[in-house]
Amino acid sequence: MAAHSLEKLEKRQAKPEPAPSRWSAPLLSREELTVIGCALGIYTCYLKYGVLQEKIYKRAYGLEGEHFTMSIFLVLIQCAVNALFAFAAVPFSEHKPNTVPPRQYAVVAFFYISAMLASFHALHHMSYPMQALGKSCKMIPVMLIGMVVRGKRYSTRDFLCVLLITSGVVLFSLSRPSKGGGGHTEPMGVFLLFVSLLMDGLTGAFQEKLVSDHKPTTHQLMGYQNAWSVLLLLAGSLVTGELTAGTAFVMRHPEAMRDILMFGLMSALGQNFIFYTVRNVSALACTTITTTRKFFTILISVLTYGHSLMATQWLAVAMVFSGIVWETVAKHQQKSKKKVEGENIKKGKKGDEAELEKKDN
To answer: Which residues of the chain have pLDDT under 50?
Structure first.
């Protein structure tokens, strides 16, 4: 009886366990925080990169109102900063000997800097929003190179995506800006943009072959590609006189040197965020982030520098990004389907092997 009373007393005195708080569980998982961090890093670096690129070319420096025109000098500084950052990161990344022949790095570097120089020179013949929009159309030269060089066949969807993107770019370039806008697109600007896209396509193709054959680490590829770019650009800037002219310009206008160095820094940090996203999140996440970043680059350019876009030009922007998003989603679905099919084949093989073992036993 006493034991029974004691048990009742203990039950009364025992405090009920507190219910789990809804604040105790983390709001976001580690993977979600990684994606957000990568997106913020890419957005911050490349939005600032775009603003600085337009500022460097469009700003009148000093009392004389001088304009910067030395594209080779600008790309030289950018590649030098990229190379320094990459080689500084090599000791902290995967340790692996570099087996890529120097000639292959030189070829990739040539296409890489050709794409940038053509793109930068295009700014003299078109507004920055037009240049940013045109640079988003990398699918077009990739398909051309695939058909001509590799004999690759593409689906109807691929051609519809290209048609949508091309129509958007043509509509944007043919629409006359309203008064006070960013200027009309000249034929030379369109030609330079096409050359830039073509060089981008060749850069990607040669990079893929180089990585497939020799498998360099991310920072080895970034470091040696940019180092070879510096060597080629040094030669080009000496021949054209841009090294002397560019150095004299930044000596006269120290604020231009600050803009150029910050431009190079944003490029280097942005590349590292992109490589980190591809390796630690996914290529699809990286593509999605960089694609949407280009739209916001155009928007910030319009707000910062007073470009006045017509309704038809905003429609053109929507057409281009709709085509890009459609292609990105379709590629992801194809990869997911292939992955599932591969897993099913593996499961089927394991099942067959198990059946054979049973029969043998």
So the answer is: 6, 9, 23-24, 178-182
What six digits make up the tokens of 225?
A: 């590609």
- β-strand partners of 61: 66
Paired sense of beta strands 60-61 and 66-67, if any:
antiparallel
Long-range Cβ contacts of 215-218 (<8 Å, 24+ apart): 215/96, 216/96, 216/98, 216/99, 216/100, 217/90, 217/93, 217/94, 217/96, 218/93, 218/275, 218/279
How far from chain centre, in Å, is Cα 290? 5
* pLDDT at res. 16: 55
Give CA–CA dist 79/110, Å, rounded.
12
- What's the pLDDT at 181? 47
CA atoms of 179 and 231, how far apart (whole Å): 44
Give residue 126's pLDDT. Answer: 84
CA 15 to chain centroid: 57
Q: Are 165 and 320 in contact (CB under 8 A)?
A: yes
> Helix H segments across the chain?
2-13, 30-58, 71-89, 102-122, 128-135, 139-148, 156-174, 187-214, 218-240, 242-252, 254-280, 283-305, 311-360
d(CA 156, CA 145): 17
Cβ atoms within 10 Å, residue 123: 20
CA gap 26, 35 in Å, rounded:
16
pTM score = 0.74
Neighbours of 5 (CB within 10 A): 9
**Tokens 């999605």 belong to residue:** 288
pLDDT at position 322: 83
Predicted local distance difference test score (pLDDT) of residue 334: 74
Neighbours of 219 (CB within 10 A): 21
As a whole number of angstroms, the distance between CA 86 and CA 272 comes to 8
SS3 (DSSP) at 280:
helix
